[in-house]
Design a protein that fits this description.
seven-stranded mixed sheet; about 900 residues; seven-stranded antiparallel sheet; 31 strands; alpha+beta; single chain
Length: about 900
């Protein structure tokens, strides 16, 4: 049986001894095969020899060892069917949250999905059962299921709504034919009895045939202790039908015809609402349609007794990682992969927004759904299904659309009590008209000229029934339920098309109130591709290196070499073996292709040998510089990474320290001898990396990165929007201030270690208020999380993207402006929708209570409120974004 694994979050560990204690306690539990505890991540990975891990038992074992532990919640998505309004949403959320082990549940009416956070041991079936007990249906969204937009399902629901609406109005035609003579001439044709029977039967057909789904939804909700919008419609229409029966036995006015009209108008509103909701998800459907449907894979075959590879077209779902597939000119690339054969231009506009094609050759990465324009490519699949770039884009959008904006909290509280309160108010209204007919009728007479449909001459019972039905059908929780999700759906789809993915609803609300935007420098403000511009070595370095056999011939006094504004000379290989020295060659941008003096060559060899084990961009730049000049690397005996400061290693038994001036000074290295070079480089906004051996300075490197060309414009636009800009960097103060001044930053915080960025973010929050952080690297992840809104460049690392609330998939700095504009526009629509939803109910319900709204007018107003909210959300498409 395949072993199972479980991750625990551990709190209270401080050292390696704590790690050992926790591991020992976990391994002592029955069935545990292995337990690995990580002090840095504060997590434990437990592997069992069978599939019956007991999370509670493991948590208790950690607690018995003196620490705290918990099983991190996981997320699943459920497809929910049967919801019609915000009351349904409240019922499903309540049912899911009452399941043991569920920490959070968010239901979205617009997408008919629920995002549930739960402990791993919670069976999915218990969630499905809870939803069913609430009167709805639920299924688990499969891992391979397309997120958000199921075109067939959407089209089916739309067509069903259309058929119900058409059928309802066809059945209403006889009623309309009878109503017109009564309305204009006061004649009940052909007579009172026949008129009443036809109206009752026709209206009943409308209510119980096309309106059957509404009645069934109302029954399911009421029978399970809930109350949704359909309950109000059902009670109102059935009450109206009941008067059509009572008219044969009691002296009351029949409202039977009104029942059918109410249901027809209700079904019309549902049809228009379904159509508008479909338009709201059009942007996501377009993303889904970007992907290829098939792939032409290479498969081995025997032809004429010879082994060869043939092309076999298969459905995209059958494509596996490692498969090689052919992409012909004009075809979409089936999935993410690496080019193995061929060269071609690929249109990546959907990712980068650039319409100029990108040239691809063997070894280059390609993204699924992009368009191959010219040559034939053979691509090896590296990611398929839900792991592809396009699928991740859509999944991030789905996360937003399944979350809620904090402002919706009040609407949710109102919705939870809305329908029961309306039913109670309708009953009170009915009784009040029976008891206080004279007083209420006086108000009706006073306003009869303003509301011509108000019939002050009707009997008391007629007015009581009319007001009762009007109160039921005028109230509209649907508008409250659709106000936020439809705006989020349109806004998130619009953002996805512009390369801006907002993951959580909180980010929409917070981003519009941003007061400060803090930028990481390397890889965010710059392209993240630093290169060596200068090398300098101390005077006594060459003699010491020559004595050790690294240098083989006398050189002039080592000097600082500035590689700027040099002409490009093609790279020539070193000749004569390891110790041979060739004439200097200079590269583009002034980079020295081969060091001019041997002291600098030795320094580069020493530094690159240590930095070769580091992943830092500056370290990679030094190594790339050494390889470009074919400088040999030495054997490294020991290595250690110093986060945010540099690296340390041993070569030939000697300790070598490489890092920033501050890092070397803190470790007792005297850098006064390089003060002149440091000052010059820092004034030129270059980053300096020093090299010391046995705490003795040997020399250093100056490196520069290319500033993103759009950075000054972005900062200027942010300032115009009233937002303060801050640069966070580990660079020294003079270098950081030089860059900040050239770009136009309001503030600069320099010499900040990665672990200190969180502290700086908190300081900015205390001083200015809401802070957004823009970054791209692993070391930015804590700061992105600490900020009120984290914004990650899509060209950065997966960890940074996962920590951020907003991802700029095109990696363009200018999309920060787009994200803020989109946030403000979306939140503006949310506020408008919630305002009109509340205002409508606050205005309409009192009018219905006073008998000033005919039930048909009330139903028309109710249906129009939902349509207005959804239509207003769709107007978000017209917003102008940079």
């Amino acid at each position: 049986m395949k072993p199972s694994q479980l991750t625990l979050e551990i709190e209270g560990m401080h050292c390696a001894g704590c790690v050992a204690n926790v591991e020992r306690s976990l391994k002592a539990q029955p069935g545990v095969a292995e337990a690995v505890v990580n002090l840095a991540t504060k997590k434990a990975l437990v592997t069992a020899s069978d599939s019956q891990l007991n999370p509670q038992q493991l948590v208790q074992a950690v607690r018995d060892a003196g620490y705290e532990a918990k099983v991190p919640a996981t997320q699943i998505t459920l497809n929910i069917s049967g919801m019609t309004c915000a009351g349904c949403v409240a019922s499903v959320e309540k049912a899911l949250r009452h399941v043991a082990g569920v920490s959070a549940a968010t239901v979205n009416l617009a997408t008919n999905r629920a995002l549930v956070e739960l402990q791993p041991q919670v069976p999915v079936q218990s969630l499905i059962t809870a939803v069913q007990n609430a009167g709805y249906q639920a299924t688990l969204m499969r891992a391979d299921e397309a997120p958000l937009a199921d075109d067939k399902k959407d089209e089916q629901e739309y067509q069903q709504a259309r058929r119900r609406m058409v059928l309802a109005w066809l059945l209403c035609l006889p009623m309309l034919a009878l109503m017109l003579p009564e309305l204009f001439f006061g004649v009940m044709w052909p007579n009172h009895l026949t008129h009443a029977i036809i109206m009752l039967l026709t209206s009943a057909a409308v209510v119980f045939w096309p309106g059957a789904l509404t009645l069934r939804s109302a029954w399911n909700s009421a029978s399970h202790g809930g109350a949704n919008m359909d309950v109000l419609i059902a009670v109102g229409t059935l009450t109206s039908l009941l008067t059509g029966v009572l008219v044969f036995f009691l002296p009351v006015t029949s409202f039977a015809g009104i029942a059918g009209m109410i249901m027809a108008i209700h079904l019309t509103g549902r049809y228009i609402e379904a159509r508008a909701r479909g338009r709201a998800s059009e942007a996501i459907k377009k993303l889904l349609h970007l992907g290829a449907k098939t792939a032409r894979v290479l498969r081995p075959s025997m032809i004429m007794n010879r082994a060869t590879m043939i092309e076999v077209e298969i459905p995209l779902q059958q494509l596996a990682v490692g498969d090689r597939f052919v992409v012909r000119p004009g075809e979409k690339i089936a999935t993410d992969g690496i080019v193995r054969e061929g060269e071609s231009a690929v249109d990546e506009a959907m990712i980068s927004g650039e319409f100029l094609p990108v040239q691809k050759k063997s070894g280059d990465q390609v993204i699924g759904a992009t368009m191959n324009q010219s040559g034939r490519l053979v691509v090896e699949a590296t990611r398929v299904g839900r792991d592809t770039f396009l699928a991740q884009m859509i999944r991030l959008v789905e996360e937003l659309q399944t979350t809620k904006v904090p402002i919706q909290a009040f609407a949710d509280k109102v919705t939870a009590y809305f329908v029961p309160a309306i039913i109670a108010l309708a009953v009170v209204t009915f009784v009040a008209w029976l008891l206080f007919d004279a007083q209420l009728r006086a108000g009706l007479l006073a306003l009869q000229n303003i509301f011509p449909w108000a019939n002050a001459s009707a009997t008391t019972v007629t007015l009581a029934v009319s007001a009762f039905v009007a109160v039921l059908v005028i109230a509209c929780p649907c508008a409250l339920g659709l106000a936020t999700p439809t705006a989020l759906m349109v806004g998130s789809g619009l953002g996805a098309q512009r390369g801006v993915l907002i993951r959580r609803g909180e980010a929409i609300q917070t981003l519009r109130d941003i007061r400060v935007v803090a930028f990481d420098k390397t890889g965010t403000l710059t392209l993240g591709q630093p290169h060596v511009t200068d090398i300098f070595a101390r005077d006594d370095f060459s003699s010491s290196m020559k004595a050790e056999g690294v240098l083989t011939r006398e050189q002039d006094k080592p000097h600082h070499e500035d590689f700027t504004n040099q002409e490009h000379t093609p790279l020539a290989p070193l000749k004569g073996g390891k110790n041979a020295v060739n004439p200097p060659l200079r590269g583009a941008g002034g980079v020295l292709m081969v060091p001019q003096n041997e002291a600098e060559k030795a320094l580069l060899s020493l530094a690159a040998s240590i930095e070769n084990a580091s992943e830092h961009p500056l370290a990679k730049a030094i190594v790339a510089h050494a390889r470009m000049k074919e400088v040999p690397l030495l054997q490294v005996e020991e290595f250690a990474n110093l986060p945010g400061q540099g690296t340390w290693g041993k070569i030939a038994g000697e300790a070598v320290l490489i890092g920033s001036p501050n890092a070397l000074t803190a470790r007792g290295v005297d850098i006064d001898g390089a003060a002149e070079e440091l000052a010059a480089f820092e004034r030129a906004a270059k980053t300096v990396v020093l090299v010391a051996r046995n705490r003795k300075l040997l020399g250093g490197f100056a490196l520069a990165d290319t500033i993103r060309p759009e950075a000054p414009h972005v900062l200027a636009r942010l300032h115009n929007m009233g937002i303060t800009t801050v640069m966070l960097t580990g660079d020294n103060r003079r270098s950081a201030e030089a860059i900040a001044q050239s770009l136009g930053f309001a503030l600069v915080v320099s010499e900040v270690l990665p672990q200190d960025k969180v502290t700086e973010i908190k300081n900015l929050q205390e001083k200015f208020g809401t802070v957004a952080m823009v970054g791209d690297g692993i070391n930015d992840a804590p700061a992105l999380t600490a900020a009120d809104v984290g914004i990650a460049l899509g060209s950065g690392t997966d960890i940074a993207i996962a920590a951020a609330g907003v991802t700029l998939v095109r990696g363009k700095l200018g999309d920060v402006i787009t994200a803020i504009q989109l946030s403000r526009a979306t939140f503006r629509k949310i506020k408008q929708n919630l305002f009109w939803a509340f205002f409508y109910n606050l205005l309409a319900i009192p009018l219905a209570v006073l008998g000033l709204l005919h039930p048909i007018i009330a139903e028309l107003a109710m249906a129009s409120s939902s349509i207005t909210v959804v239509s207003n959300a769709n107007l978000l498409r017209r917003v102008r974004l940079e």
